[in-house]
Design goal:
CATH class: Alpha Beta
Helix content: 40-55%
Strand order of the largest sheet: 2-1-3-6-7
Largest sheet: 5 strands, parallel
CATH topology: Rossmann fold
CATH superfamily: Flavodoxin domain
Structural class: alpha/beta
CATH architecture: 3-Layer(aba) Sandwich
Number of domains: 1
Low-confidence stretches: 210-217
Strand content: 15-25%
Distance between the termini: 14 Å
Number of helices: 7
Shape: globular
Number of strands: 7
Oligomer: single chain
Mean pLDDT: 95
Length: 217
């Protein structure tokens, strides 16, 4: 039995295309693997706190030397990291804001990219950074106002969502990441519907791929 971590970063509710597609992804996934457990975290409606000076001081103090206030400063981050380690699969719903990720998701990334927890640092080593997270797969559903931000698209150079997430997740050891795009939210009409349909087909392919792999295995 696997555990799936669902992360929704949109502040929208029923109007959110990423929330809708993530929910469809999870439903399809669960249909094929009813024994899998799903943990949901709503970053859009319950945003993580931003990093503070106290947080930084605590994170860079060896665990054995942390004071009770330092441990308290890291308690929420520890919860998120533990949740991440327990997951086998991540599914993220990410609206593109001004060509990057929403602040709520950036705050989440800042909480989980932790020295000594999700990566190690040895300044004397030839390769000083070592990821401490392994064996996980991530699926990222991105919603955009225009279209063509995916690799090879006319607006790909303006896409700072995918490169950032590939870098941040890869830094802690999550290299197996698939992206699904839906666009044309600002245009609406048939253009939006066609884009949503393509995204739904991609979701069906990805969840079907997992089911087929389970059967083959």
């Amino acid at each position: 039995m696997a555990q799936l971590l669902q992360l929704d970063a949109s502040p929208r509710r029923s109007r959110s295309h990423t929330r809708t597609l993530v929910a469809e992804f999870v439903a399809r996934w669960s249909e094929g693997r009813p024994g899998d457990r799903v943990i949901r975290r709503d970053l859009g409606h319950e945003p993580p706190p931003h990093i503070t000076e106290d947080w930084i001081a605590a994170a860079f103090t060896p665990p054995s030397r942390r004071t009770p206030p330092m441990r308290a400063a890291l308690a929420y981050s520890d919860q998120l990291v533990d949740e991440l380690f327990a997951a086998d699969v991540l599914v993220l719903g990410v609206p593109m804001y001004n060509f990057g990720v929403p602040a709520m998701l950036k705050a989440y990334i800042d909480q989980i990219v932790r020295v000594g927890r999700t990566f190690s640092f040895d300044p004397a080593a030839a390769a000083p950074y070592t990821p401490l997270t392994s064996g996980k797969r991530a699926f990222v559903i991105v919603g955009t106002g225009d279209a063509g931000y995916e690799t090879g698209g006319p607006l790909a150079s303006m896409n700072h969502v995918e490169p950032y997430l590939r870098t941040a997740l890869g830094f802690i050891g999550i290299d197996d990441v698939e992206f699904v795009y839906t666009g044309n939210d600002e245009f609406g009409g048939e253009r939006l519907q066609r884009s949503l349909e393509r995204a739904r087909n991609r979701v069906a392919d990805l969840t079907g791929e997992r089911q087929a792999a389970e059967v083959a295995g």
